[in-house]
């Protein structure tokens, strides 16, 4: 039996999925969730084989929820996201259903998912590719969602002083503390609000509001002090970017 969870904030959307699933007797819906918090908890507890997932939901989005799952199962997106974004992703997730969709189109998506589950293809690799494609859309970040233990933190960018590269992760330095999140510095650099953050070094991106002073450390080498007391190295290219942003 294939165990599935539906995560969608609309009851009607969840009901349609259940109705369209009736011909697929090998799939059992074990839980329905109305937001990403509920979905994350259910996925961690139940470890389903398949998720039907909306993207635009209150609290956290479907994408943000997936970022918090270590070993995601097969995912079928059921969303009203625009067609342009769908095309950017359609080759990299199990499938996308653009609302409203027919039962025939739904059946195609489910069959793809069953094939994927049967072949035991890597969902982790799929999610990594999905994240890359998401980054290509050039969305402007306005918050960062992170998980520590069983707690989910939604960090406003106003609470973040700087980001620091840590191998395949980024360490987020915020008012509440430090958090690790698997993401790319390049993604941050390209999608943080323009003029509010600047990459001063290959390992550091800082909030412009948090800058205290810039000091010459040694010849052609600078040290940036932040209001929270952090002192960070500034590369030559980072210095040029600082001059452009701070206009000095």
Short description:
It contains eight helices and 15 strands. It has helices spanning 11-20, 36-46, 62-67, 83-89, 103-119, 123-136, 185-191, 236-246, and strands at residues 2-7, 27-33, 50-53, 74-79, 95-98, 143-148, 151-156, 160-166, 169-174, 177-181, 197-201, 204-207, 211-218, 221-226, 231-234.
Q: Your description of this structure?
A:
This protein is an alpha/beta fold and 248 residues long. The chain is elongated, with a radius of gyration of 21 Å. The mean pLDDT is 88. It is built from 8 helices and 15 strands. 33% of the residues lie in helices and 34% in strands.
Largest sheet: 5 strands, parallel
User: What's the CATH H-level superfamily name of the largest domain?
Assistant: Response regulator
What's the gyration radius in Å?
A: 21 Å
The proportion of residues forming helix, as a percent range, comes to 25-40%
The top level CATH class name of the largest domain:
Alpha Beta
Q: How many distinct domains?
A: 2
Helices, by number, come to: 8
What is the helix/strand order? EHEHEHEHEHHEEEEEHEEEEEH
Shape: elongated
């Amino acid at each position: 039996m294939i165990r599935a969870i539906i995560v969608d904030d609309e009851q009607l959307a969840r009901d349609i999925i259940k109705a369209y699933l009736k011909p697929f007797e090998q799939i059992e819906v074990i839980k329905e969730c109305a937001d990403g918090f509920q979905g994350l908890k259910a996925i961690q507890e139940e470890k389903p084989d398949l998720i039907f997932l909306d993207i635009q939901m209150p609290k956290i989005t479907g994408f943000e929820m997936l970022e918090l799952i270590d070993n995601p199962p097969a995912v079928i997106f059921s969303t009203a996201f625009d067609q342009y974004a769908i095309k950017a992703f359609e080759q990299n997730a199990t499938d996308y259903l653009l609302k409203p969709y027919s039962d025939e189109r739904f059946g195609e998506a489910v069959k793809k998912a069953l094939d994927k589950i049967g072949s035991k293809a890597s969902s982790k690799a799929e999610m990594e590719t999905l994240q890359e494609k998401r980054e290509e859309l050039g969305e402007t970040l306005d918050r960062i969602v992170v998980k520590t233990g069983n707690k989910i933190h939604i960090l406003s960018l106003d609470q973040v002083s700087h980001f620091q590269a840590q191998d395949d992760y980024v360490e987020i330095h915020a008012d509440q503390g430090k958090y690790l999140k698997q993401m790319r510095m390049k993604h941050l650099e390209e999608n943080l609000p323009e003029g509010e953050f600047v990459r001063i070094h290959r390992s550091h991106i800082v909030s412009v509001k948090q800058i205290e002073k810039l000091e010459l450390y040694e010849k052609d080498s600078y040290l940036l002090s932040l209001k929270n007391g952090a002192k960070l190295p500034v590369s030559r290219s980072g210095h040029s970017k600082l001059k452009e942003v701070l206009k000095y």
